[in-house]
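User: Hi! I'm working on a homework problem where we have to compare a predicted structure to a textbook description. Could you give me the structure for the chain below?
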Amino acid sequence: MSIKKYVKFATKSFALPNVCVRLRELLDCPRSSAEDIGNLISIDPSLTAKVLRLANSSLFRFPSQIESVSKAINVIGGEALYNLVVSETASTAFKCFDSELIDLKQHWHASVYSGMLAKHLAMSTNAKVIERFFVMGILQNLSELVVAKRSPELYQQYLDSDKSLLPYQRQKQLFGFTFAHCSGIILESWNLPIGLFYPITHVNDVARQSSDREIGVLALSNRIAVRQLDKENHSEIELFTSEIANTVSLDMEMVSNATDYAERETVKIAALIR
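Assistant: Happy to help. Predicted structure tokens:
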């Protein structure tokens, strides 16, 4: 099946909640205020509670308590708030594509772990809007769920394929595309910002890893995640390929710090969003 058919299946099966669409519109409108944004989020008590829990979590580490959405906007900013809403939406999307072939709880944990790694690495490179990397880490393998639900027999072949190859290599070999590439196109079809879907779409493009720092950071976080979550097959994976090293100026101590952070915080953050 072509990548376009999986994207079509995903977009027909799940639509972004209206609050996510309206929030983007308000952030892009120069006449909107923090009060307008706060009123929008506050319509949904469950979303409000989750956003405030995340705003007060280790994702931000603010010294004082954030007690309202309007304060959250003033403290963490509108774009960070948007990324929190998108991450909460991701949890809903994951459940929409639940499959017997994938342990959803384990998949969610791995996704949040990748997001925590990406965020910490991005912070170390002084990247802009670092919460965006957290969301990218979560969303980049969304299409794995889509593929498993739409083509279970083919996905089973993927599970049974040669584990000595890296996941993206196995995906390319069997499907003709990577899960990240397909996920990126799905996110673009949902009209998410280019700052979210572009790095995901091209994360496995070695030429772009060598020229685009954001893609390099995301690619590095992916390799660390593979090493940490699949030690049986990839404990010796090379982290800093020549392409990644060309754009990401980090050392192994920073990698160790990012890994420690992800190991320590993932369970707590994953539980807050679900």
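For your comparison, note the following. Residues 127 and 214 are 8 Å apart (CA to CA). The chain has one domain: 3-273. Good luck with the assignment!
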